[in-house]
Each structure stands twice: as structure tokens, then as C-alpha cells.
Structures
1.
Amino acid sequence: MIFVGIDPGKKGAIGFIFPWTQRVTVRPMPILPAGVLNGKRRGRDEYDLTDIRTILRGLEHSADYDISPRGIFVTVEKSQPMPPTVKGGTVANFNRGVCRGWEWMLVALQISYQLVAPVTWQRQMHAGTPGADTKQRSLIAAKRLFPEVSLKRTERSRKDDDGCADAILLADFGRRTYEAPAEENEKMKSQIAPKSFRGEGPCPRCGRNHVWFRPGTSDWYC
């Protein structure tokens, strides 16, 4: 299984975790920059939808996909509408609505996914990190969990990017979410099923002295 985390904003990123090869990578959100006329920006940056689709489809042709149990699981941060009085107003809310387009693309590509509210994944992934600023806590958590991964947005960047940190943490949150049920089932089985036991001496079944054995069931064998 390949786990993908998506911080869906235009300043967000896409993180990838390949458990079978223990590889973790992240890349900035593919964007088509606004045009420039007479030294001034005209219009707004837009998502490069074709590049995003190519990235997601390309996972199925990667070496990691071929050697792992086939499948991709994507975790997308759920965008929350804000009051018009908040900074950004209606334009910001429009951009948050555009972010919901990830669902449409993932369904069209037949990729499994989940939407997670920021407070939900941050509660788990930020556990034990200091501070009240969620951006700073994401950077701290990502550096602790994945110290080998560069969080810089580009090669020229001097500072680590919180969008890249969020994307990796979302991918890891998805991994934990996906793997937790299987681990919990194994734990329950070990607690419920009797443990195998071998003994010598008075047999619990027949009372004679010999080597006796109880497998992982309620029956005794002698």
C-alpha cells in the first residue's frame, strides 16, 4: 500500500510514504503561476490539474507499487468554510470550495481516500510537540518522525515549509488509520485465544506423569 497525504491549498503539498521500501518523499502542490504584465501579477495562481492527475496515476507505474500489496490510500485535509468576516472573506471560501475537487478526481481515478478535519489529524500527529502554533508544531513533528526528508519547498528555499510538513504528517496519519484495525485485530486475538503450553508431570487431562501439550485452543493433548 502506498500512502499519500494532501494539504490541498495552493501553498500546500503532496506527501508520499512507501512502507515496503521505507521511502518518504514530498513535493509542492503543482501550480500554474499567474501571468505577469508590465512587472505586475495579473490574475491568480491556479492548480495544475493535469500535473496532479499525472502524479496520482504515475503511482500505479512506480517500482514501489509493483512490489507492495497493490493499492493507494490518500488522506486529504478537509477544508472548512469560514465566516465572510474572516481575513480573505468570500475569495478564501471559494478557494476552500475548489479544494473539495480532490474528491472528484480521486473517485474518477478509483483511488481510495479519506477526508480528515485538521483538528482530527493534528490531535494525533502533534502529540508531544510544544507550542500553540499549528504550523510550527507540524514542522517539529515532521522533523522528529522523518528527519531524513527535506521540508524545503524548492532547492532555493532557506526555510522549511509547513505545507510540506502537513502533507507528510497526513500521509502518516493515513498509514496509521489504515493499519490500526489489522494491528488491533491481532492484539484481540492474542488476548482471547489461549496460549500454547507444554508441560511435564501430572497431566491436566488424564492425571498420569508424562509430557503433555495444550495448543492455542481449549483442548488438552497427552
2.
Amino acid sequence: MAHRPAVEIIDALLNDCRRHLGAEQPPDDVTVVVVRRGKTAGAGIHGMKDSGRASGKIELVSTVQIEVDDELLEKLDRLGPDPSSRRSEFISMAIRKALWELEEKETAAAYARQPDSEDDAYVDPDSWEPS
């Protein structure tokens, strides 16, 4: 199956999961991430998130293929969440944190370029007191 496009692998996994569950609802959301290990040609990757809840709907989500070296993957396996459950959530949180830090740096740089004046920073202390 390793040679098949990621979208086909995801489709097959979700179909098998649905067949296995039958009429039962999944106990939780099902997220599938396909990660190719080693050198790749950089082919596009697509994904689906099967919410499986009462509606049984499948929402399309963007899936990003990342390449990591063996040392980083070993650390992720050792320190990160169980690969079968929350790895994509963990990676998404790490990306959000990194982006937030970049936004904070951009904001700090903007204030350094154009700092607030004393007039901008004035606050009337009486406005904080109950009337």
C-alpha cells in the first residue's frame, strides 16, 4: 500500500474503519494522517476527517506532508503522544504555537518601529472605578 497515493490510503483506512464499526458510532473523532518516511517526490497529500458522530459526515481537511529526519521522528515517538491517537493534534498544536510566537515577534517589532506616545498610553483611572 506504500506506493499508493495518500488519498487512496486514507480512503481505504476510513472505509475499513466504517466496515469494522458497522452501525455503531465511533467512540471519538477519527483523524488520519499519512506520513511518508524517507525521501519522497513531494506529491500532494489530501485527507479526510471522519467526525462519525450522529451525522456520520466526513469533512475534508487539509493534510500536509512533512519530512523529518530519523532523530526527530525518534523523539516524537518517544516523547509525543501515542502515534495511533493524537499525533496530528500534537503537530497542529506545535505549529499553532510556533505561528503565535512569530505573530508576537511581528507585533513587538511593529511597536519598536512605532512606539506608543504618552498620549496614546493615557488611561483615566476614574474610568475604572464604579460610579
3.
Amino acid sequence: MNQDEIRFHGGEAYNLYPNVLKRISLDRTEKILDVGCGVGHLSEYLKGFNLHGCDVTESFVKQAKQKFYREVKVADIHNLPYEDGEFDKIICLGVFEYLEDPYGAMKELLRVCKGEIIINVPNYNSAGLRHFVFGTWNTLLVSIVQDQMLWTNRKFYRRLAKQHNLRLQIKYFSKTFESIRNLWGNVFAGDIIGIFSQEIKTVEIEHDCGCITANFKEGVIMKKKCESHDVNRKWVFLMLLHKKKLMEGKVEEK
């Protein structure tokens, strides 16, 4: 088993990728981005998928290019070299616990993804409990401080979701006694998967032809229906943005 496939956490070690993949839904028609792809082992489980990868470490990217990605780029999670809404889903495993600005990173993931964002982090509630029981609490704290890691748990995911107004689904997994530990997953589970999704709202805007419908996500037009008329795109955008602010209570109806 490759070393970067194994999660070492609280004395546990287990194969990360199959545990995550069997708890999420992916389709071969989707364009998927693996953020923090490392040397590319996730692609070995997703052969034939429209999978792209990126990592901040150039040497990892060189190795990942030899695997099963359509394309792999050197990139920082806070400044991704992709277009707005380019990907249908994002997978980001074992990354967020190391970030100084996880909220900024999530904002950037949201920019390039129009579907689900799937994140996996270790559950340090469980790790802390294990180390406390076995009297190795100081070892865990030193490790977290030295590696500059965040204390990640269910609450961490909920803060991310609240910050960006996202829907959140949480799933747990562990190496041993999984069915029992998952009953109280926030305390006992080894790892936590967060599946974040955005709500795309549909707004109808009156025009001369009365036939415009547009969707917005953070003020960006996702779709416009006006098959038989040439409607000024800038006008639609400004009307959408004003409608969005009305719904959020940021401006008053005149």
C-alpha cells in the first residue's frame, strides 16, 4: 500500500481512497477536479473518469502526470488556474487540515465548481480522545503544532458551510468498530467527509418579450433562456444582481 494512501491518525492506519469513494456519488460524464492530488493515487481508482488534478508541489505533479488524469497542473488551492464553474465536482482529501485560510480556499473551490465539493479531514475529537486515554496527549499536540494543522471535526465543516451559505452532508468512517463508532461519529469516528453543495436559485426577469429566465450563483449568470430574441447580456446580469440583493435584503424595492 502506498504511503500517501494511508491515513495515520490516533494510532489508526487505513486505506483512504476506497473508504471515501464508496460514500460519495461520481459519474463518468462529470468533469472532476482532484485538488491536492499528491502523486496521483486517486486516479488509479477512477480510471476512465474525466478526472483532472492539481497540487502545489511540483515534484508530486510530475508523478501524477504519469497516472490516469486528463490533465494535472501545479496550483495553489487559493488561486486555481481554472475558469469559473469549470468543474462538476471537486474532491479534496487530506488538505484542509493544513490550510492557514480554509475559508478563502473554499471560496476558490466554489468559484471553479458548479456542483458538489467533497472534502475529507481527520476527526481530531476522536484522535484527542484516543491519545488522552493512552496518555499520549502531548504527542498529539506537538504533532499538530509542528505540522501547523487545524483541529478539524464536524464543527469545522459546519463553520465552512455557514460561512458560504452551503448545504452540508456529513459522513464518517473508521478502521475498526465502524458501525458503533459512527453512531457518535463526531466523537469517535476516525475521519469525516463533508459534501458541500450550493443552491442555485432561479429568478424570472421581465423583459419586452417576457421570456427571460436566468439562474444565479454568487451574482454570476449560469443560464439564460430567450430562444427567439437577442437580449443584452449585461442588462440581464444587472437585473439579476439587483434581484439577488432584494432577496437578501441588501437593497429596498422602489
